[in-house]
Design brief:
By secondary structure, the protein is α+β, with helices and mostly antiparallel strands. It is built from 22 helices and 31 strands. The strands form 9 sheets. Strands 6, 7, 8, 9, 10, 11 and 12 form a 7-stranded mixed sheet that branches. The structure holds one RNA strand.
Length: 726
RNA sequence: GCCCGGGUGGUGGAACUGGUAGACACGCAGGACUUAAAAUCCUGUUCGCCGAAAAAGCGAGUACGGGUUCGAUUCCCGUCCCGGGCACCA
């Protein structure tokens, strides 16, 4: 607060009167609470915000210095959404005349002569003042409709909706009267919450104009085909007053200069990202070290820190959407803030605390954070792209600026592991009732008898395949105790979806049973063998037997069930060393690039080959043991001791790859005719183009395909393939 | 709707930089060992055609439709489907 990083403002929350609480977006389904099915509306509450927008440019710049995937950088860049444009004030002509100006943000001031209508976000307070007497009822009806809609629904809406206010904006250059509309596709939180719509150049504006029959002005001549917007910047402007004849790209600056000179507009860099809402009306969260004195928020002095959550008997929400802390008389008496911090408060900097966990003076001493510095490798999913991973980057920059730490990016390298997904099950509740309808009874559009149906997650553990155990469902949660069911063929059938595995989706499975049955090494290796780390996939244990069999086979290289240790201290053959060193190379390469599934496959190939060779040689098997340690640490450690070593395998010297053991002198080349592989010919790796051509063309298997004709070209890629073009 | 990923045999996947598509496994089928089972081992397994069978051969094939290239799972354009995110799940 002292650095103006945090401030109070008004924010909209999902308010459920019946539950008396604020709900998260994913606790709201079809405008009703997931729990109980009660109506949810938007409500304005005082909230805390963090000024992350002040860091927007540095968050963009920092991306160039860190090792994140391009996709991740792209997501963060798009989320921050920096754009260059202008704010323009339009004079407003309305019946009430209480709104004098309409300020819009646009990246395309060059198209100002093509503005055919304005669109204002419905939630802006002064919107009702725009409405003419004739339009007042329609406007109010539309505002009520939007009030019931979640942001998520609004953004996903394909249908075009909106209403004319009855007011007009005046084009400052040609005096044209431009109708002002309201539509939910314009969001209050972006730009000024109002846009100038240019249907010939913007697809959404064009569709809106089409839908409501608004005439379209063409300012780009033949670049506009009359049936589709063209967002080009390269067209030469027509019908555009002082901009006519200019290329659009060049006209942008000219238009802004003119607007600035006239005092009705200015250059503006805009960000899509908004400041971060930082308060929650919940109990479980860090309390704010803030005391309210006569309506002014004052930070607690350091002597009163740390402020800890009070013990409570009940977690019931406080009055009027306040958090549970508002119910604690001792807390309220001290005039302490009753909101708490969100989950990302802690997750933004926990890794710093890990560096110095017992420090009672500071979150982390400067010495400790200088020593450990950045997180070298952070493994996390892309679902954190624009939340946690952005917040923690901002948090780190703030701490850096204040001198508490010496680096301004928290993570050096980020690897996005895929999510293990689960198969979720859903039940269908008729909106506003306690009636649950089996899947097969729903209409084609997912409704029941014309009524909206809420799709709710149900615990996979009380569903057998797709059939719900209705009795277990009634016992599952108090809300469902009185549930009634409409069955099909005597059964309640659920629908299913593959989603990320999550407690809130009730689709989690517990790995303990598998660890119990196969051991931790098998489980660990199986997870790695499943597929590339960065790929998401549904959890499935079908293949675990294979990994288990492999580890048993690996064990048998060293140990015989009856005769015990089989390893002999004898020199390895060239063949055995080749197998070993191929494995060393493969494991090293694959591990370096996080390709654990192919590394496991490499181990399997190596063990299969050594088994075939009946290799029992200690020099080979000892190195292999060290190699596999990161993948199967328990078995490795045990065999290490059985081999007679005193210390831990973790301290053993890691095997070094030596090229001399795997060197080959010839390769079996695939030979293709016109790109189709027809033969395999073994040729020395030293062979040159001419030599290869001779050998290939003399080959009877190839000659057959040439039918006596000379080839056009022979393409020879050393150590890869040979292609004969006929 | 917008942003970001992904789509390859019956299944998980491999092919790293445009160069033999299906490595390694699972499953399945057949066989060996066993009184039997488990465990283990061997053989086969993309689809279609040819063929008694084996071997060999031919054709098609990496979501779908086009394109670039001697050559495309890989690059380009378009479409469809699935997953993640969209600001109060963290």
């Amino acid at each position: 607060m002292e650095y103006r990083l945090a401030y109070c403002g008004e924010g909209e929350v999902n308010w459920c009167e019946a539950l008396g609480t604020v709900l998260a977006n994913d606790e709201v389904v079809n405008g009703v609470s997931e729990r109980g099915g009660y109506p949810v509306v938007k409500k304005k509450l005082r909230q805390w915000y963090l000024r992350i927008t002040e860091y927007a440019d540095r968050l963009l710049e920092g991306l160039e210095r860190i090792d994140f995937s391009d996709a991740m950088k792209e997501m963060q860049t798009n989320w921050i959404g920096r754009s260059y444009g202008a704010e323009i004030d339009f004079e407003v002509k309305s019946e009430k005349a209480t709104v004098e100006n309409l300020r819009v943000y646009t990246t395309r001031p060059d198209t100002i002569f093509g503005v055919d209508f304005m669109v204002v976000a419905p939630e802006l307070e002064w919107v009702p003042d725009l409405a003419s007497a004739a339009q007042a009822a329609a406007v109010q009806e539309y505002l009520d409709y939007v009030q019931r809609r979640s942001d998520r629904e609004r953004m996903a809406e394909k249908k075009i909706s909106g209403v004319f206010t009855g007011a007009y904006a005046i084009n400052p250059f040609d005096g044209r009267e431009i109708p002002i509309w309201i539509s939910e596709y314009v969001l209050a939180g972006y730009g000024t919450g109002a846009i100038m719509a240019v249907p010939c150049g913007d697809e959404r504006d064009y569709k809106f104009a089409q839908h409501f029959g608004i005439p379209v002005t063409n300012i780009i001549g033949s670049h506009f085909n009359g049936s589709e917007a063209n967002p080009t910047k390269e067209a030469v402007l027509e019908n555009s007053g002082f901009l006519t004849g200019m290329r659009m790209r060049d006209a942008i600056g000219v238009a802004i200069d003119k607007l600035e000179a006239m005092g009705i507009g200015k250059r503006k860099v805009n960000y899509r990202m908004r400041d971060a809402a930082f308060s929650r009306q919940r109990y479980w969260g860090e309390p704010f070290p803030i005391r309210w004195k006569n309506g002014v928020a004052v930070p607690l002095p350091a002597s009163e820190l740390p402020l800890e959550l009070p013990h409570v008997d009940s977690y019931q929400p406080g009055p009027e959407g306040e958090g549970p802390l508002a119910n604690i008389p001792s807390w309220v008496a001290k005039e302490l803030e009753t909101n708490t911090m969100p989950g990302y408060a802690g997750s933004s900097w926990y890794f710093l605390r890990y560096m110095d966990p017992h420090n009672n003076e500071a979150f982390c001493s400067r010495d400790a954070s200088d020593y450990w510095a950045q997180v070298d490798l952070y493994i996390g999913g892309t679902e954190h792209a624009v939340g946690h991973l952005l917040y923690s980057r901002m948090w780190t920059k703030a701490l850096f600026d204040l001198g508490y730490i010496g680096h301004d990016e928290p993570y050096k390298k980020l690897v996005n592991q895929g999510m293990i997904q689960g198969s979720s099950r859903f039940v269908f509740r008729v909106n506003g009732t306690n009636l649950f309808v089996s899947k097969g009874l729903l209409d084609a559009d997912g409704n029941y008898g014309g009524k909206t149906v809420d799709k709710l997650h149900v615990d996979v553990n009380i569903v057998d395949g797709y059939e719900l155990d209705t009795e277990a469902f009634r016992n599952w949660k108090p809300d469902f105790a009185a549930a009634e069911f409409l069955l099909e063929d005597g059964k309640y059938i659920c629908s299913s979806e593959v989603e990320k595995m999550s407690k809130s989706k009730f689709n989690t499975v517990n790995p303990d049973d598998l660890v119990e049955k196969y051991g931790a090494d098998t489980f660990r290796m199986y997870e790695m063998f499943l597929g590339p780390v960065e790929m998401s996939k549904p959890w499935d244990t079908k293949g675990i037997e294979g990994v288990h069999r492999f580890l048993k086979k690996f064990w048998r290289l060293y140990m015989d069930e009856e005769k015990g240790l089989q390893v002999v201290d004898a020199p390895a053959t060239a063949e055995e060393l080749k197998v070993l060193h191929r494995a060393i190379r493969k494991i090293e390469e694959d591990t370096e690039r996080f390709s654990f599934n192919t590394a496991v496959s490499g181990f399997m190939i190596c063990v299969n080959e050594l088994s075939d060779l009946k290799c029992r040689k200690k020099p080979v098997l000892s190195d292999l043991l060290v190699l596999i340690t990161p993948y199967a640490p328990h078995i490795a450690e045990e065999l290490w001791h059985l081999l007679g070593n005193a210390g831990s395998v973790l301290d053993a010297v890691y095997p070094v790859f030596e090229e001399k053991y795997v060197r080959e002198s010839a390769k079996a080349y695939p030979v293709a005719i016109n790109g189709k592989t027809r033969a395999e010919i073994t040729i020395s790796l030293d062979a040159g183009q001419q030599e290869v051509e001779q050998i290939v063309l003399a080959d009877p298997g190839i000659a057959k395909w040439l039918e006596g004709k000379p080839p056009k070209k022979v393409i020879y890629v050393k150590n890869k393939m040979i292609n004969v073009v006929v």
